[in-house]
Write a structure and sequence with these properties.
mainly alpha, about 10% strand, 6 strands, Outer Surface Protein A, domain 3, about 270 residues
């Protein structure tokens, strides 16, 4: 007899990976065979995972059509079976999957549309966070401020694409709305996806300076290096004004000073 953990692992492999031959003999069948019982679980699992992908990627689904999306979802589920109990975590590799999925090779913009939708999904479910503690920030000695590492709100994501993916997403056809033709050659976008205090999700196209500044912060760069990257990306970038703007908007919410000898190491706790 299998131990509980071995049974659970075997059942999971049989349902998600189709490895039923070695496991079916451990199932007691009554009205249906062991293989048929496993097939019921497998079908229900596939339906649930497909529905999860449809909920996360509605624009991709509309762009390729319902039938093709379900075909692609079946391939994705086979190659990337769910390994977590939370369906909100399923689908993170879908954009990368589409980028290598031969049937959509000509739809070069499609993986970036999927990345936008995954980022939207992450922002929607991200934790809340308190605003930046400005008094704590003012307590940092001026000579140490360049060492600060500012962090973005958990509900903020940055995305860059050579395609007009925001316009494609906004052009997602709704009932009674005519679809607009979009020229892919009109250019790409640097994009901030952010959930504000009213829990509304906003899409903000960014200039080169803003994107470089926020991206450097998201990557954990020291503030001096982040400022340098922003000014390199955009020579006329108004650094004090734009950084203050992102603090006021709640996009920049916390900071670290990576020195254990300094008493203020982390300001801005999640709420």
């Amino acid at each position: 007899m299998l131990a509980l953990r071995e049974w659970q692992q075997g059942f999971t492999a049989a349902v998600l990976d189709g490895a039923e031959d070695a496991f079916a003999r451990h199932i007691r069948a009554r009205h249906f065979s062991s293989e048929r019982r496993l097939q019921v679980y497998r079908n229900n699992s596939r339906i649930s995972l497909t529905s999860a992908l449809e909920a996360i990627y509605p624009v991709v689904r509309r762009l390729v059509g319902e039938g093709f999306f379900r075909y692609a979802a079946a391939e994705y589920i086979h190659r990337h079976p769910s390994r977590a109990g939370d369906l909100h975590l399923f689908g993170d590799a879908f954009a990368a999957f589409l980028a290598s999925f031969e049937p959509v090779a000509e739809l070069t913009y499609l993986p970036d549309v999927a990345r936008l939708e995954w980022n939207y999904h992450q922002v929607f479910h991200a934790a809340r966070h308190a605003p930046l503690d400005r008094q704590a920030l003012m307590a940092i000695p001026p000579e140490r401020q360049g060492e600060l590492r500012f962090r973005l709100h958990p509900a903020a994501r940055l995305l860059v694409s050579p395609f007009p993916i925001l316009r494609i997403w906004q052009n997602n056809p709704q009932d009674g709305v005519d679809e607009e033709l979009i020229d892919l050659a009109e250019g790409g976008v640097n994009l901030l996806i952010f959930r504000d205090e009213e829990l509304d999700i906003r899409f903000q196209p960014l200039g080169d300076g803003d994107f470089a500044l926020l991206h450097a912060c998201a990557e954990g760069c020291a503030f001096a290096a982040a400022c340098e990257q922003a000014m390199t990306a955009q020579a006329d970038f108004d650094l004090p004004t734009r950084f203050s703007h992102w603090v006021a908007q709640g996009v920049v919410t916390a900071f670290d000073l990576p020195d254990p000898s300094f008493p203020i190491a982390d300001r801005g706790e999640p709420t």
